[in-house]
Amino acid sequence: MNTKSYDEFILSKNRILEKIQLEDLFINKLLFSNIITSFEVYLQSVFLDLLSEDKELLKKLTLSSKYKNNKISLSKALTNDMNIYLSELIKNIVFHNLSDIEPLFKEVLDVNINYKLDDKILKSIEKRHDIIHRNGKTKKNIDLEITNMELNNVINIFKKLIEDIDTQIISKYFGVS
């Protein structure tokens, strides 16, 4: 059993794998960035799905280190549905910033994101940043080259990380080990 968010990640991963045919370094950059985007979407969607299902998690969110000091106006509190407000807060988080996301998952969901076990995860996120914000060049203006092997490796790294997170979520919230 997997979460719907996991299944969506696998669908994205499979689409990416279908596109890896030629050693097209330009296309590989796009596919590389997309696997990390798919990872971000997984984190956001699984987090939002769990919050929408469990009001106790919403309370834990408001007490988390990220939001416990958040202030909102009385008019906003009275006119808006708090669930919608909290959902909008979550949608504005940058989910590839794992140093922010890790404590949020731990404090609210009691789920560990073990990204520090593999330094390739943070290096891949940094590379994605170069691809998206510098058109595939490093800060030193060096063109990144993403080979098929590197692309396959990053797919496997993020798939493994998501499987670990998803296993914890399934066990904790759906009672399946």
Total domain modules: 1
Basic shape: globular
How many helix segments?
Answer: 8
What structural class is derived from the secondary structure elements? mainly alpha
Number of strands: 0
End-to-end distance: 9 Å
Return residue spans where pLDDT drops below 50 for at least 5 consecutive residues. Answer: none
Helix content: over 70%
Strand content: under 5%
Description:
- There is one protein chain.
- The protein is mostly helical.
- It has one domain.
- 70% of the residues lie in helices and 0% in strands.
- The protein has 8 helices and no strands.
- The chain has helices at 4-19, 25-53, 55-63, 74-79, 82-91, 98-109, 119-133, 148-174.
- Helix 1 packs antiparallel against helix 8 (148-174), helix 2 packs across helix 7 and helix 2 runs parallel beside helix 8 (148-174).
- The model has no long low-confidence stretch (mean pLDDT 89).
